[in-house]
């Protein structure tokens, strides 16, 4: 859980470094050091949101799998009952 937030925070800092590299500005300018935590928090919040999306998708997939398994069990019982009646 935490590793995803840390990854996206690191990516946010990396984006800031890339931005400064493209602009050919110094990476650690004293006046612009406050921006690194901003980019890290934006990236971290995106990672936290993405983690919630992933958990909801896993829950949805598990519910769908359970529904399909129940449906298969009901069909198997119905087929067995029909086979028993035919015999």
Helix count, DSSP H or I runs of 4 or more residues: 2
- Sum up the overall morphology in one term: rod-shaped
* Radius of gyration based on Cα positions: 26 Å
**Tally of distinct domains:** 1
**Ranges with pLDDT <50 over ≥5 residues?**
none
Q: How is the main sheet built? A: none
**H/E topology pattern:** HH
Q: Indicate the multimeric state.
A: single chain
Mean pLDDT: 91
Count of β-strands: 0
What share of the residues lie within helices?
A: over 70%
Query: What structural class do you assign from the helix and strand content?
Result: mainly alpha
- What is the strand content? under 5%
Distance N to C terminus:
56 Å
Organism: Massariosphaeria phaeospora
Protein name: NADH-ubiquinone oxidoreductase 14 kDa subunit
Keywords: Membrane, Transmembrane, Transmembrane helix
Task: Summarize the structure in short.
Helices cover 85% and strands 0% of the residues. The chain has 87 residues and is mostly helical.
Structure description:
This protein is mainly α and 87 residues long. The protein has one domain. Helices cover 85% and strands 0% of the residues. The chain is built from 2 helices and no strands. The longest helix has 52 residues. The N and C termini lie far apart (56 Å). It comes from Massariosphaeria phaeospora. Keywords: Membrane, Transmembrane, Transmembrane helix.
């Amino acid at each position: 859980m935490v590793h995803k937030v840390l990854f996206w925070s690191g990516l946010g800092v990396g984006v800031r470094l890339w931005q400064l590299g493209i602009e050919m500005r110094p990476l650690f300018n004293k006046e612009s050091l406050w921006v690194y935590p901003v980019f890290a928090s934006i990236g971290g919040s995106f990672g936290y949101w993405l983690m919630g999306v992933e958990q909801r998708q896993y829950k949805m997939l598990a519910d769908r799998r359970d529904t399909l398994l129940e449906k298969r069990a009901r069909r198997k019982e119905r087929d067995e009952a029909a086979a028993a009646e035919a015999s």
